[in-house]
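Entry 14. Structure prediction run on the chain below.
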Amino acid sequence: MAYNKRFTWETSRRWVRGYKGETVVVDSREPLLVWESAYPVPRYAFPVGDVRGDLLRPAANPPSGPHEGATEFYDLVMDGDVTPNAAYVYPKLPGHIAFEWVSLDRWLEEDEEIFAHPRDPHKRVDAIRSSRHVRVEIGGQIVADTWEPVLVFETGLPTRYYIPPKDVNFDLLVATESHTRCPYKGEASYWSMREPVEGVPNDVVWAYPDPVPAVTQIKDYLSFYNEVVDIIVDGEREKHAGD
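Output returned:
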C-alpha cells in the first residue's frame, strides 16, 4: 500500500467492469483502490488504457475542490447523451482515471454486481446464525422476539441482529418505498412503525430480499437500527449504538 498525507491507495487484483447501458466503459484487471481523505469508503482509479477514452470529453463545467485537488475532469458522451463530470484524474495518480460511481449504470467485481462503492478489502462482514434470544422493543411494544437470529458483524459498525419474518410482528409495521444499496449485502427494503413513536424515525426496519452470495443467511430477515430501538439479548438490554 502507498501512503501520503492526503490519501492512500493500493493495487487490487479484482477484475472490474463498469457499464453505461450495455456499453463497457471500463474493463480493468489492475485497478487502484483509493481512499480519499474526506471519505471513509474506497473508490477505484483505472489505468487509462482500460477506459474507453473515446467516450470522454474535457468537462464543459468542471467543479473545483473535490477529489483531493483534482482539476482534470471529463464528461461521458454516448449517443448524444452527456453525463457531466463523470470522470476525473487525481493529481498524484497520473495515468489513471477515476469515475463518479453513479455516472455508470452497473459495476461488476469479477462476475458479481456491486453497489454504492467498491468493497473495502480491509473490512469484514460476517453473517452468522445464532441461538441467542433477541427481543426488539419500540416504544414499549415488542416488535420482534426470536431464538433464531442471524448476527451480522461488520467492521466499524454495531452488531446487527437479523430476525426471521415469522418472529416479527408485522401488525406494528408498514412497508415504505425506500431502498438503499450496500456493496456487502445488496439492496434493502424498508418498514416504518405503523403508528409513529417519538424519537423513532421512518425506515427503522430493513431487510435484503436478494442479498449478495456472501450473506445469503440474511435473506428476508429483518433488522432494526440499534441506535433508536431497544434490543434485549439473552436478557440484557444493549446500549444504544453511539451511547
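The longest helix spans residues 66-69.
Filed with the rest of this week's runs.
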